[in-house]
Amino acid sequence: MDRLLSDPRSWGLMLTAMLTVMSNATITPSLPGLEAAFADDPLAPTITRLLITAPSLLVAVVAPLAGVLTDRLGRRRPLLWGLVIYAVAGTAGLYLPTIEAILASRLALGLGVALIMTAQAALIGDYFDGPARGRLMGYQMASTNLGGLLFVTAAGALAASDPRLPFAIYALAVPLFPLLWRILPEPPRLGGREHCVLPDLPADPGWRMVAGVMAGAAGLTFVIFYAVPTQLPYHLGGIGLDDPRHAGAVMGAMMASAAVMSVVSGLIRLGRIATPVTGYALLALGFAAIALAQSLAIAMAGAALIGAGLGFCIPTFITAALNASPARYRGLVSGLITSAIFLGQFLSPLASTPLVAHLGYPGAFLAGAAGFVILALALVAMLRRQAPALQVKRISE
């Protein structure tokens, strides 16, 4: 068994990652019921849809500042503050009287998510190094996808009884608080108020550009990728697969594949460039398969390729940026990547909806496949311009 799995800090970091996937997805099954419950409010149809994207927007804005806080104040305090905000704001939908108040609570939830994500990503960089860091990023993404399967399934069952009940799932942060308090210690301080991380090692040449490139790649990847959860059900309906269980089966195939490949990507040493390029190739093939699919089996196969590609790309982006950056800036770097990912989620419907209007669903998914090919070529071109020391360093080193 991997020695990482015998380290309680690893499990604590994976549990925090599972919480973050709930920020958007958990209340998806509740939206029709919430809209009906507030039918007397003329803004309800618009606001109920904003409930999904509101946390992403606030995370995108706040995450860089949250990263600075984790560099200034330490890792534990922002993480634990984030858990408190997450529990209070996440469960507020159980009792708030208006849809506008629930929307405000969703924005507050984004603040909690930003603090949690940036602090736990910085802790990965502080606690682990070398191949262990890359493997843990893979385990973390696997836990995120498995959490998504469990929480969305549970939310669907709860929403069938009452559309407010899925908000109760956010209360899982409450029992996690004392557990994480105990098993996630603050890394040693480096003398001086402004530093709270492990002693610095020499940073890679051009680490700022590496961090910027990885953040940009992560954000653009999610702009394209999020066409799957936002547009796929309608595309499946257009080819005769209009039963909601069909969309659930396709999404399930994608999450399961992403969970498996996230672990595998941490064990395979393809290098800083080859790993995300492999992921982009799988993403492009998956989007093309979805575009051309005329059966459930082909759609599920395409979704599995998409999940596998995402499992290769995202852990690589985060690990490469953390490996290149000096320890005292890991909070800021993790905050920038978190911001980019959530901004990509927020912008995705704005990009994909006009494509669907002009090209139809198959054409839009084919455009997404082409977009991943372009991203792969651009990433190769930018990373090959780095200093020789940066070119030869492996992602797992």
TrEMBL record:
The lineage of its organism: Bacteria, Pseudomonadati, Pseudomonadota, Alphaproteobacteria, Rhodobacterales. InterPro entries: MFS, MFS_dom, MFS_Efflux_Transporters, MFS_trans_sf. The keyword Metal-binding does not apply. PANTHER family: CHLORAMPHENICOL EFFLUX PUMP RV0191, PURINE EFFLUX PUMP PBUE. It is a multi-pass membrane protein. This is MFS transporter. Coiled coil: none annotated. PROSITE patterns: MFS (PS50850). SUPFAM superfamilies: MFS general substrate transporter. Keywords: Cell membrane, Membrane, Transmembrane, Transmembrane helix. It comes from the Bacteria. Residues 9-387 form the Major facilitator superfamily (MFS) profile domain. The chain crosses the membrane at residues 12-34, 46-67, 79-97, 103-124, 136-159, 165-184, 205-228, 248-268, 280-298, 304-322, 329-347, 359-383. It is found in: Cell membrane.
